[in-house]
Amino acid sequence: MYDLLLRGGTFFDGSGAPGQGCDVAISDGRIAAIAPELDGPARVTRDVSGLWLLPGFVDIHTHYDVEVEIAPGLAESVRHGVTSIVMGNCSLSLTAGRAEDLADVFLRVESLPPALVRRWLAQAVSWQTPADYIAHLRGLELGPHVAPLLGHSALRVAVMGLERALREPASLQELAAMRGLATAALDAGCCGISIDMVHWHKVSGAYAGRSVPSHYADRREYRMLAELCRDRDAVFQATPNPQRPGSFLFLLGLGIGLFRPALRLTVLSAMDMSDHPGLWRAFPFAAWVINRLLAGNLRFQTLGEAFIIDADGPLTPFFEEFPSGVELNSAADADARRTLWADPGFRRRFRADWLRRGLRTFHRDPARMAVLASPEPEQVGQSIAAIAQARGQDATDCVMDLLARHDTALRWRACSANERPAVLRRLLAHPHILPGFSDAGAHSRHLAYFDSALNLLREAVRSGFMPPEKAIARVTGEPARWFNLDAGRLRCGARADIVLLRPEALHTPSRVAEIDDTQLSGARRLVRRDDQAAVASVYIRGQEVVRNGEPLPELGSQPQGQVLTPHRVVADRTALLQRQRNRLDDDTFEHPFQDYWDIFVYKHQHRANIVLHCVGVVLMHGSALAALLTWNAWLLLGIPLSQLTGLCGHLFYERSHVDMRDLVFSWRASRCLNRLFVSVLCGRYGGEVQRVRAVYARFLAEQG
Predict the structure, then answer these.
(1) Do the bridges between strand 543-547 and strand 550-551 make them parallel or antiparallel, or are there none, so unpaired?
(2) Can you tell me the mean pLDDT for 117-137?
(3) Which uninterrupted H or E stretch holds 32?
(4) Do 585 and 657 contact (CB within 8 A), yes or no?
(5) Residues 6+ apart with CB under 8 A from 220
(6) In this predicted model, what pLDDT tens digit does every residue of 518-563 receive, in sequence order?
(7) DSSP assignment of 283-319, as one string?
(8) Interval 375-407: pLDDT, tens
(9) N or C: which end of the chain has fewer CB within 10 A?
(10) CA-to-CA dists, residue 158 to 95, 175, 183, 189, angstroms
């Protein structure tokens, strides 16, 4: 007997395959059967006709490390269909280090309410090892499944102490200690390591205003951590500093995989920045160079909607990117900030910082800063530039005067990225850019992107820029597969992490709301609310935890989620390199083929691609023979032309993975090319294609 039978929904499995009418049966928290019609008895049968049935969303960029300790249900994400999260991003985690030190690191970067941090500190568990931390997470009453990263800032604090971690690179002895601790974290189940270079991230407490510890590492420290991840095919998450393009180039250099295993590198960056409208083109190009030409495994992350931040007067992440703004964010209270504004020298510094050009994330344009709340009601809804014009005042002076007079009573909003829907859609559709960047759990007063995955589906349905099944895969199966996590797919035997959606409700956007969250000591935070309740239900391991967009009492009071540990399928670097060379496409490493000829045939099935490869073989041998007979070395240029011909076949007709060593020259590729040519001439190649297809189809059927 099934525990639950869902009848009549449109089923999406998370692979990108089109939806189809199916019944889904669940037993013991897992998918027991999927078929057009299921007749077996069930304890509960639910008619889900008219609903989409799809895997729970995978949120790859959250900062729930502190919140999960206090409210492990993580209801603000789960209510929007998220059933798996990755936390520990941007170098911030609780995996290692003293709780008091980590509080100073987390409090300001994540804009966490002080009451929340104090509550966490009062009940913080002191774990001695990363394995203890993972065991501790398993003991929480988790709502969604959790995959932790090891944060580099926490690692530095644990080894060097907070003061030295905020001042200087590590010594050789400290590097060795970090290596040992990071190795233990990866072995215990962390899915990777995160580092941070972005200029927005500062600490609080005695060292208020200093950048987080990860910023003070030198390149050998970053390389050491990257090599640990490379050897284990673990995720290496990084945030470059947009004010220092060299940090971006350094990270791309780490991603090069020629003659070594590819680093599973994911880079978080605002791509379509409002102040630099042409810069976004660099990201798809960089991904193409690293992944296609330099054998890398790079994925950028982008937010699937406009990057809007609400500010409490001078307290905003926007101000962390210039020195006088850091001073304001570091001030102890409103009186300290008023003292700064009363100082003519500070006002001169603020004006200079505000007007300084260069590569910056926040545009600092008063015309694009809208007032949300003010002690002067007539200002609400106006831009600061309009207020300045009405006063006959310089716009920058108006910014300073309003902040000095009203402090945090002035609430304003600005957008710094993703303002152009057409550009954003191109980024979201790119195969090497993952929808992420939700920052769920962080900046609680400034942003709320808890439903960023759902918003991608809304945009796909509204604009048609992507089929719904592809949009679903982009936030379920694709990120889970790339992060090596058992999530994001619905098939027999998989965990029953299911979202039921009302497709007609996807045409209506959600709204931003402010609440006093009782689970977080009444802290005021921004959230998303969906008046149309697009999420009809969320099931985690077969248990319903959300109904009509509202969390049920079971969420966070009973354990539903698990700690997700990544698949570790390769024991040594040589085997890992061979596995990466033999993948079928960017993400398909698992396949039944042992002989490289079978892999080669699988990658060369399109008729036009086969013809171009045959032309390439003729060019290669013909140019070599002609050069030998005529003693004209110029004819040898036909050899690289032959390689270019084959590459065009993959570019235009069959975009399977091409290993660069095979493209330039390898005996295995040369042997298979010649065999392809002979097989085509003899009329046998079509049979080889059919044989390989049949083998792969059987493999997929066995995998469920």
Answers:
(1) antiparallel
(2) 84
(3) strand 30-35
(4) yes
(5) 169, 175
(6) 887 788 899 999 999 999 999 999 999 999 999 999 998 999 999 9
(7) HHHHHHIIIIIS--EEEEEE-SS-EEEEEETTBSGGG
(8) 999 999 999 999 999 999 999 999 999 999 999
(9) N
(10) 9, 12, 14, 19
- Token duo for residue 53: 């049935």
Distance CA 317, CA 309 (A): 8
Is pLDDT above 90 for 568?
no
Weakest-pLDDT range from 293-302, 311-320, 631-640, 658-667: 658-667
Identify the three-state secondary structure at position 279. Answer: helix
Q: Collapsing DSSP states into helix, strand and coil, what is residue 580?
A: helix
The SS3 assignment for 436 reads coil
pLDDT the model gives residue 114: 72
Sign of CA dihedral 338, 343, 345, 351: positive
How far apart, in whole angstroms, are the C-alpha atoms of residue 666 and residue 512?
A: 56
Please, are residues 242 and 198 in contact by the beta-carbon 8 Å criterion? yes
| Residue 570, pLDDT score | 61
Domains and CATH numbers, the chain: 57-306+418-458 (3.20.20.140), 334-415 (no CATH), 590-703 (no CATH)
Amino acid at 62: T
Nearest CA-CA partner of 102 in 152, 142, 176: 152
Provide the mean pLDDT of the chain. 92
- Read off the pTM: 0.92
